[in-house]
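MODEL INPUT / OUTPUT PAIR
PAIR INDEX: 1
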Amino acid sequence: MNDRNTPLPDVPHVVTVGLPHLTRGFETADRLNLATHLKVHGPLAPVSGERLVALAEDVRLLGRGGAGFPFARKLRTVAKSAVRRGVQPVVVVNASEGEPACRKDTVLINRAPHLVLDGALLAAEALGARLLVVAVTRDSTEASLRDAFDERGLTDRRIRNRGIRARVVRTPERMVSGEASAVIRAVNGGPALPPGRRERAAESGVSGAPTLLSNAETYAQLAVAARLGPHRYARTGIPDEPGTVLLTVSGAVARPVVMEAPSGVPLSYVLRLAGAPPLPQGVLTGGYHGSWIDAHAAHDAAVSRASLSSFGGALGAGALLPIGAETCPLGESLRVANWLAAESAGQCGPCRLGLPAAAGGLSDVLDGGGQAALEALREVTQTAKGRGACKHPDGSVRFLLSALHAFTDDLAAHVLGGGCGRPTTGVLPLPAPVRHGARHQEGAASGEKLEVDWTLCQGHGLCADVVPELIRMGHDGFPAFADTSVPLHLHDRARRAVRRCPALALRLERSRAESTVIAPRKFLEQGRG
C-alpha cells in the first residue's frame, strides 16, 4: 500500500482502460515531442468558431477542472463579448494543480504537451485570439511546456506561430491558486489568490479582455474530438458523457496511478486495477473539495458525473482516494481538514476563521466532546457555507460534512463511546515539507509544527489572533492547535505568534526526522535584532 504521508510523484504510473485517447502513444515514449505527437495523433486542421462550438456541443464537452461547466457555452460567451467590445480575446490553459490528490494535468503536460496545445490553439484560432497563456505549478511541468513552445516556435517576444504569442505563468502549489480567478490574477501580475469578488473571465479576464479559461484536460479532449469527429468520439463512454476520463487514484492503493478510462466504467473496477482493498471502508471522490462515499456506494457507482452524484459523490477533478478498514476515516478527514484550513487565502471570515473552527470542531468530536461537540461542528459548517469570497470554504465544508454522512458508525462510536479504536494512518497524500536548501515553494509545508508547553500556557490567546488558520481558542479558554505542518505561506505569522506569547509557552518544532527545536527565546532575540 501507499506509504504513510507520502506525497504523489509529479508523474505517477499511467494505466489505460480500453482504447486510449489522451494517453495514446504513452507506451512508445515518456514524452511525446512534436514529431512523435504528429506520428501518433496526426495533423489537426483549423476549425471555424461556429464548427468548434457545434463540436463541443455534440460531444457534450464539460470542463474537467472540477466545476464541469459546458465548454461550448464558454466559447460562445467569449466570442460574443469580444465582438461586442471590439477587442481580441485571450485563451488560458489552467494546468495549475495545487491539490495534493490530483496529477492528471501534470501528467498531460509532462507527457503529451502538444495534445493540450492542439486544443488551446484550435480555440485561439477560432476566436481570433493572439495570446495563449498556460499556468503551471511544478518545475517538471514548466520545463516540458517550454520545450513544447520551442518545438512549435511559440514565443512571447515576437509573433511566429500563426499570429499567436504564448506565455508560461508559474503559480504556487496551493489549493486556492488553481481557482480560475486566482489564475487570472496571477497572469495579470498579481498574487495567485482569488480576488475576493466574483468576476467572469469570459467578460473581463487577462488585461480586462474576454478570456477563455479552461482546464488542461479539457483542451486535450477538444483536440481528440476534433480529430475523431463527434460520432467516433461518442463510441467511447456513455451517451450522456461520451469519451474518456482522466483519473488520479491514490490513498490505499498499491501505488498511485493516473488512469484513462471510458466514462461509465464501474468504480469498483477502477479501484481494483489500482490495487485498492477489495472492500474499501470508503472512497473520497473528487478530491479534497469533493465528497466521501461509503463502501456500498463505491461498489455500485460508475465513473461518471451523474452516477457519482446519485450516490452523494462527485467526479470533480477526477481524484479518487479509497481507504482501508485499518484507519480511522474521521481521523483521516481531520488531517485534510486541518490542511484545508491552513490553505486559506485569508481574505474573508468564512475562510480565515470558519475553516479552522470547523476543523477544530471535528477534533473536539474525536476527542470525546460528545453530542454537544457534534452540534457545534454542524453549526459552524453551516455558517461557513455559501459565504466565502471564493469556492474554497464551500468545497472544504462539503468534504467535511460528507465524512459525517458517509461514516455514521464511526461517528456514533466517537460521539457516544470511546472512539472507533483505530489509529489514523495518514494514507491520504499531503504536501511534503520543504528540505533545507530546496527551492522555496509558497504552498509547501515547512516541516515545522506549533507546539505548546502546557505547564507554561496561561490562555492569553494572542497566538490565535496572529494565526487563526492554525490556532483557535478552545471551549476551556486555552488554545487548540491544528495537527498539521505549518505551510510556508503562514510560517512568518507562526513565528510572530511564538514571539508574542507572553508566557513563552509556544514554540515551533521540527518533525521527528528533523529534531531541532526552535525555542521562543531565540525568536525573542531575533525580534530584538
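PAIR INDEX: 2
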Amino acid sequence: MEWFRRVLWMILVLHTASCYHKDHYYNNTIDPASLQLQEFRTEHPRPIGLLTISSGEPVEIRDTVTLNTEMFNRNFHPELTSHADRERIQERVVHAKGIGAYGYFEVTNDVSKYTKADVFNGVGKKTPLVGRFSTSIENLGGPELGRDLKGLSMKMYTREGNLDFLCLQPRVYFYRDPIMFAPLIRAFRRNPRTNLYDLTMVWDFISNRPQSLNAMLWLQSDVGIPNGYRKMNIFPAHTYEIYNKQGDRYYVKFNFISEQGQDNLTTIQAMAIAAQDQDYYSRDLYNAIAEKNYPAWRLEMDVMSLNDIKNIDYDPFDVTRLWKRGTYHTVEVGRVVINRRVENNFKDNEQAAYNPGNLVPGISGPQDYIFKARRIFYPDTQNYRLGVNHNKIEVNMPRYERTYNRDGVPPLRDNMKDAPNYYPNTFNGPVPYVDESRPKETLLILESQAEDLEPSNDFYHNVLEDDAHRQRVADNIASSLQNVVPSVLNNTLRVLTLTSADLGRRVTASLEALRAAAAKINPAERTRRIAQCIEMNLNPKY
C-alpha cells in the first residue's frame, strides 16, 4: 500500500502543477498588478520565440551556462552582463518616481471663440496622449505617500505637433524667480552630509523666501496627500496666452478636475497604507485601468480678456498666487481619459520627455519668467538625460516632423535621408508657414521682486473652508518644525505670524503641545504609540 500512496501523491502533485501551468487556478483576491506575469503566460501559451543576442544570432542552450567553459568565447554572457552594467539612464532630478499610461483627450465644448488650436476645436474630436503621474521629491525607488508635490505630465499628439502640460496638485507654484529652482530642490532633497531629508533646510529656505509659503501651506493642507493619483485635481501653474482665428487674445489658467472626485488622506492614514504598500499610488492606477475603471479629468479654463488683465489690482501672471474671485469666468473644454497601461515601463515612461514649451498654433504660451526659463532648461535636461534626439524616441515622436537637424546619438529614425540640411535653401527643403492670426504684439511683464504675504493669508483664511482645516494645517506645520534648529524655527514662526496672527498662534500652540507630550515619553515609547495608531488603522477589529 505504501507504493500506492506514493503513486497517488505523485499524480496529485503533477495534476496540481498542470493546473497551475494552464492557469486554471485563479485567486480572486490577487490584484491585477500582481497577475501581470500570469496574464502574459495566458496570452502566450508557448515561448514567444527563439532566444538571440542583439545582433540576431541564436543562443545555443550550452551557452546559457558558464561554469567549466571557455566563458568569453561566446557572445551571450558578455553581452548580457555588459548591458546590465549600462541599463540605467540618468534619474530625473525631480519627479524621479512615476508611472506612465496612455489615453485620449476629447473635446466636449466649442471654445473656438477663445483659441484656434485644432486640438481644442471640434466637439467629439479625440486626440491620443501619454501621461506620467509622479511624486516630486522622492528618488526613483522611494515611497509615494509623503506630503509632497504630486503631478501629472501629459503629451497630446495633436495634428499640429505635440502639446505638453506639466501639472501639480496645488494650484500655485513655489517661486516666481527662475533662479530659485536649484536652491529650492536642494533644500527639499537630502542633506549633503547626513544624506537625510532635513526640515531645517526646508524651513530655512521658505522663511527666507516667503513667496514659497503659499505653496507650502497647500502641501500642509488636506490636499497635500491625495488618495491616489486618480483622486486629485491638477493644474499647470502658468497663465497661458491663447488666440483665436481673428487674432483676439485671451489669458487662461487650465484646470484638470478629477471626475473620480477629489479625495485626500490624513497623515496617519498615509502612514498606515505606506506600512503595507509604498507603491500605493502606482498600484491603484494600474489596477483601475486593468479593471476598466478608467480615470478621467474634466479640462476647464479660467478666462480673462486682454482688457480684463489691464483692469485688475493684482498680477495675473504670478504663479505663486491664485486669481482673485470675480475677476474671471470658467469655460469647459473637454475630458482627459486614461485607458491603457504602458507595455514597458522603461520604453514608455522613463524615456518620456515632457516639455512645457511644446505648444501648438492658437496657444502662444505663458509670458512669465518661470516659463521663459523652462523653455530653455527642460530641453537641456532632456538632452542630458536622453540625448539630443530624444524627440525621435517613439513615445516622444510627434505625428509629423520635418527638421534640419541631423546626426547625433541614436535614435535617428530616417535622419531626414537626403534632404538639404540647411535653411534657407533653393532645393525644396522643408519651409515655414505663415500664421496670419498670431498676435503681432507681445506683452512685456515686469514682475515684482517684493515678498507678498497676501496670497498666503488669503489661502489660510478664505480657501481653507473652516477652522478644523486650519487647525490641521497648523498641526502639520508644527509636526514638521519639531526638530528644526532654534534660529530657523524663530524666523519661521515670525513669517507665519506676519502672514496671519491666527496661523502663528495655532502653530506655536501645537508645537508646544507636541514638545510637552514628547518630554513625557521616551523615543521608544513614542514609536510604540505611533505603531499602535497605525495598527488601529490597519486592523479591522478596531
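PAIR 2 NOTE: Strands lie at 98-107, 126-135, 150-158, 161-168, 240-243, 249-258, 296-305, 329-341, 363-366.
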